[in-house]
Structure formats: structure tokens, C-alpha cells
Design a protein that fits this description.
alpha/beta; globular; Rossmann fold; 21% strand; 202 residues; 27% helix
Length: 202
């Protein structure tokens, strides 16, 4: 009887279930703890990129680069922003691994200051959820993002109506109606399990 050997997560047993869902190629990426648990998985990132309108996109919180790589692989011109120099370095390395580093411009800084300076077809927002304990809250709100989700949406909508927002699965979706904008909500799943929501404003 064949038993497939389990590949142990190099970042520790607490993150093993995040490691288990990665493809073989994703396991070659440079990832720290936050980069692993917040990574937009390859299949999901490509799907979101396909649904995101236009030829250019600003990825406001690029992290380890999962989403930016997905956008670039779908032929979009990408501006990838992060305020952490080490995380940007990981994203550059990972983009090179997937052969799309020349399609991405990496910028260090606060996206709230940088987004308004770009002309872009779409803005992708995937702000931090507060670590792996985010799902302990009964309801997650825009104000629970770091920084506040409303303060991220304002500069984004100032440059384009096409804003894509990644939301945790415990997000209070009814809160989106208060924004007074047209949007579509989609469930992103892996092996039939809900990972998170993605909202497409237009």
C-alpha cells in the first residue's frame, strides 16, 4: 500500500494546513509566515486576474506577490505596492520564479498616498486581516482591516470605479450596500471549501 509522504511546512506546524494547499511550484516561492497565510493561491489569483477589467492594475498590498503574479501572467501591466521592503524583495524573487518580473513595477510605500498618483484600469485591495486569528470574530467589518477599509476604498475610487476587494469569509457582506455602488460578490473556493470572498466594484 502506497503512502504519500507528507511535506512538512518549513515555517512550523502551526502553518502546516496553509502549506498543504500550495502547489509544488508555489512551495518554491520565498515566503515568511505572513506571506504564507495571506498568499493568494495560484488558481485563485489567476481567476481573479481574469475577472478584473482592463489592461493595467494596481495591487495595493502585494505581500509575497501571489496576486501581482497572477495579474502579470494574464498579461496585465502591474504596479505592486507594499510598505515592507523585505516583503517587496520576496515578491520580486517570486515574480522572477514565475517569469513575470519584467511586467511588474514594485514600489515601497503607503498605498493610500501612491494610488492617486497612478492612472490605472483597476485597483486590487487585499489589506491585512489582522493575522490568522481573524476568523475568531463573528463578523469582520471594513474597519477591521489594517488600515481601515473605507480609507482604502476612497483613494481607489478616486482613480477608477473598477476596484476589486478580497474579503475574509466571515465578512459582514451587508456592509457593502452602504457604499452605494454597484458590485458583484464571488466566493473563492479550493477543493469545495470557501477560502474567502472577492468583491468586484464597477
Amino acid at each position: 500500500m502506497n503512502h504519500e509522504k507528507k511535506i512538512v511546512c518549513p515555517l512550523g506546524p502551526r502553518l502546516q494546513h496553509y502549506w498543504d494547499r500550495l502547489t509544488e511550484r508555489e512551495r518554491e516561492m520565498m515566503l515568511d509566515e505572513e506571506g504564507l497565510f495571506s498568499l493568494a493561491l495560484e488558481s485563485v489569483a489567476l481567476h481573479i486576474a481574469e475577472k478584473t477589467p482592463g489592461e493595467s492594475v494596481v495591487d495595493a498590498f502585494c505581500g509575497a506577490g501571489g496576486s501581482a503574479i497572477g495579474f502579470a501572467r494574464k498579461g496585465k501591466k502591474v504596479v505592486a505596492i507594499d510598505n515592507d521592503a523585505h516583503r517587496l524583495s520576496m515578491a520580486r524573487h517570486n515574480a522572477k520564479l514565475f517569469g513575470v518580473d519584467e511586467n511588474i513595477e514594485f514600489i515601497q510605500g503607503d498605498c493610500r498616498d501612491i494610488i492617486p498618483s497612478f492612472s490605472t484600469d483597476s485597483v486590487f485591495l487585499d489589506p491585512p486581516w489582522g493575522g490568522t486569528d481573524y476568523n475568531k470574530a463573528e463578523k469582520f467589518s471594513l474597519s477591521d482591516f489594517e488600515p481601515d477599509g473605507l480609507k482604502l476604498l476612497e483613494p481607489s475610487f478616486s482613480v477608477t470605479p473598477s476596484v476589486v476587494l478580497r474579503l475574509p469569509k466571515n465578512f459582514a457582506l451587508e456592509e457593502l450596500d452602504e457604499l452605494g455602488r454597484e458590485y458583484e460578490t464571488e466566493q473563492n473556493t479550493l477543493d469545495g471549501r470557501l477560502l474567502h470572498y472577492c468583491v468586484y466594484f464597477s
